[in-house]
Amino acid sequence: MTSCGTPIELRCGITLQNRLVKSALEESLCKLGGSAPTPALVRLYQQWDVGGWGMIITGNIQVDSRHIGLPFDATLQSHASEKHGKYEENKWRRLAQAVPHTPLIGQLNHPGAQSTRWTFSKAPWTRNVSASGSGSGSGSESIRQSKTISPLFPPCRALSEIEVHAIISQFINAALFLQRSGFDGVQIHAAHGYLLAQFLSPGTNRRTDAYGVRCTILVQILRAVRSACGDTFCIGVKLSAGDYNNHSNHKQRSGLLMEDALENYLAIVNSDVAIDFVEISGGSYDSLAFLSRSQGVFFEEFARKIRRSVDGADEHHVHSSHANHPITQSPRLILTGGIRSRTTIDRLLSEQLCDMVGMGRPACVFPAVARAMVNNSEHSVDLTPYEVDSVCGVRTLGFVGMMCWVL
Ligand SMILES: Cc1cc2nc3c(=O)[nH]c(=O)nc-3n(C[C@H](O)[C@H](O)[C@H](O)COP(=O)(O)O)c2cc1C
Known about the structure:
Oligomer: single chain
GO molecular function: FMN binding; oxidoreductase activity
Keywords: Flavoprotein, FMN, Oxidoreductase
CATH architecture: Alpha-Beta Barrel
Radius of gyration: 20 Å
Pfam families: Oxidored_FMN (PF00724)
Order of helices and strands: EEEHEEEHEEHEHEHHEHEHHEHEHHEE
Protein name: NADH oxidase
Bound molecules: flavin mononucleotide
Family: Belongs to the NADH:flavin oxidoreductase/NADH oxidase family.
């Protein structure tokens, strides 16, 4: 029977020692304005590397050094001179070398409309970019409507087709760069309301050109990265199960509903691009579904829908529960969000709702939680002491990431 300690092979040939994945966590440990990894970031990854994880996904790495999400993001310098580029490469190589025991996947991202105003990577009045422009269907409509947080985000404009092509190239160059620096793979971030999610959502993609077909940009990126980096490089994608904003209900159809998300999933797995894994999450800055505090596995219903609709599911399920299974057509499925106990993990795996599970906040507080889960079938974590409603009266993400033990 599959349990969280059962190894699993990915299509690219990498075998994970267990089913536990450290999900992406935007560490904010780089330099102001976005930079290559710092010694603090390297120390953090050294701790995760010995934490017993099957795979480690980095926090989002911004592919465009002007458009970063938060001021201290890990960022690839898109306009670096050759000399500077070499210097940068050594820093990324140092990060990869800090993780010798675990497959390391770099999460590549462009924040689009969700680039905060004060990133110090661009002038605060510079417009953000998105699939569609401001006004109806802009990047993050309810952010703009919120008096508290809208000043944090500049308005956004629609990308031209030429700019879309340039962004696709940034993703390809970023993947090649990380491969050269010693990473085992990349995850293309197309969830949580960032730029690629803005293309994937009918609420934010009102384009009339080829990129108005929601998955076009993502499939083009995945195809180009596969072709550039080869079959043995791990390529994954993070997708949202829905936008979960106030508008994405059946009364006012403007966000990504679960059926749209299923369409996205199917368009990607049925495309001609072989990818290794899909991680499921959900929400955006409009509605932080992925940072919910509610008990339970946040996106289980969506995983069930996927399993029911893909593969004529049975063949996949039978094979995926074994360590030495034949590799099937579907990518491995990672379910992330709200997973806190070994019992839950074993249930999800035995019901074949996913092939691996992702953990975010538990990994902030307990870097070796994966080892504890694998070794102890009773193990669970309690994060309630770390959850806060507000800091100095400002509503927070509902959680204070405790990464200070690395500093
Ligand atoms: C501090 C923090 C930073 C995060 N940064 C990222 C990120 O860079 N990229 C991403 O895809 N998800 C990010 N997430 C979301 C997590 O990967 C994960 O989807 C979410 O925390 C739900 O999983 P959990 O309940 O196990 O924490 C972040 C979450 C937290 C708490």
